[in-house]
Amino acid sequence: MVKWDVIVVGAGAAGCLAAECTARKGLKTLIIERKPMERIGQKTCGDAVGIHHFKRLNLDTPKGEELADIMEGIMVHSPDDQTVFKVASEEYSGFVVDRREFGQRLLRYALDRGAELYDSSNVRDVVVTDDAVKLKYRRNGKLEEVTTSVVIDASGMNGIVRKKLASLIGVSPTAHISDLEICYREIVKVKEPIPDKFGHIYLNQELSPGGYIWIFNHGENVINVGLGIQMSKKINPKEIYDKFIIKKFDILKNREVIHGGGGVVAVRRPFEYLAWNRVMFAGDAAYTVNPIHGGGIGSSMLSGRLSGETAVEAFEKEDFSINTLWSYPIKYMKEYGSKQVGLDIFRLFLQTCTNDELNHGMRQKLIKEEDVLRASLTGEVKLNITDKATRVLRGLGHLKLLLKLGRTAKYMKEAKKLCANFPKDPSRLHSWLSELNKLYVEYKSNL
Question: Maximum Cα–Cα distance for the chain, whole Å?
């Protein structure tokens, strides 16, 4: 049986950066990926990633065939199309990438550093002992076994390792259906692209309940267009796309479909246990997607880098227990996870708003561009006394919405305060989670 220092399950953005990090430090690293090598990177998504992620990770920004287009910010459209919020910041400026080309670049990073790839391979079982992690996988029709000191699960939202270890860790193996978005997206050739360099998001609780519709430029006369719907609504997004979305936007008339496909994404706070004995979770397997806009490339890369660095630390200490690996969730929560928690609460607020409330709230500035921007940057919405009074005068016809926004701001603040006290000791996680879950229950009961 072959012994590896680190095994990374999944060659997505998180897995490749984790493997690059461990291989660069001389650790014998294996990537197990279910796709064939030539398809690594292909994924149905919005394809947008903020420039700040490249700066944080010291990565070259996309260029050449990788770069489909640039994005200067986001335009958020009200359901009645009468109000548009222009949200421009580093958080929302960046690039629209060719997903496959970008993924292949990240894979090359890992392979050039010495990582080995077993592609077209499916992990079937995971057993964690005090001494090692044993993985069974099927490759070329054969069932084989390998062992490793540390495994990083970056296998996507289905979380192959996470599911196998859920009962051991004591968590649900999958996200709740209300925290899932089912999406349909097309890359289409059009006569004329969007006349600006902004991504366009359309809120509409009738066409995309619990989610939104998006249109991004994706190159010369090519756009990325799709919609996400809260999975608990049990609505097929492709049916909505075919019946209504194509008719709603003139830009889609006489379109030529280059690629169409669907998928499911978890939009929620991070996975409860980002680390365990000899195991870490990264990318979609760790629920690192932004709960508001559903983007996950940048946060996946961050989680991959942090988990890889933590694996290196574990080898330096010769300790692969949760006590050493716990530095990973501490770092992730500080850099991104705490914001995710706040945004998760803001998501619950938006998902309960009706079209009428969204129209009125955006038109009367009960909900402002600054709210969206501040929430996206910090995971918090701040309402001072003057601001509250002004919004009350504007919102006399919609006091319910205003009160709901006020409660949301309060609970986002409480969540951020709680995340600032994320436990340094993993033994305190259970009590911390109890406090966080209590906050969620209180908030939901007041929606």
Answer: 71
Mean pLDDT, consecutive 10-residue stretches, the chain (447 aa), reads: 94 98 98 97 91 95 95 93 87 89 98 98 96 96 96 95 91 93 96 90 96 94 96 97 94 93 96 96 97 93 98 98 98 96 94 93 80 70 53 58 87 94 96 97 92
Compute the distance between CA of residue 144 and CA of residue 133 in angstroms, rounded to an integer.
14
Q: Do the beta carbons of residue 218 and residue 187 sit within 8 Å?
A: yes
> Does residue 141 share a domain with residue 285?
yes
206-218 burial, b if ≥16 CB within 10 A, otherwise e? Answer: ebbbbbbbbbbbb
Q: For residue 163, tell me if it sits in a domain.
A: yes
Read off the tokens for 399: 């006091």
In total, the chain counts a number of residues equal to 447
**How does strand 275-276 pair with strand 279-281?**
antiparallel
As for how many domains the chain has, the answer is 3
Q: Which residues pair with 403 in a beta bridge?
A: none
- CATH number of the domain that residue 149 is part of: 3.50.50.60
Question: Do residues 76 and 85 touch, judged by C-beta distance below 8 A?
Answer: yes
Compute the distance between CA of residue 165 and CA of residue 135 in angstroms, rounded to an integer: 12
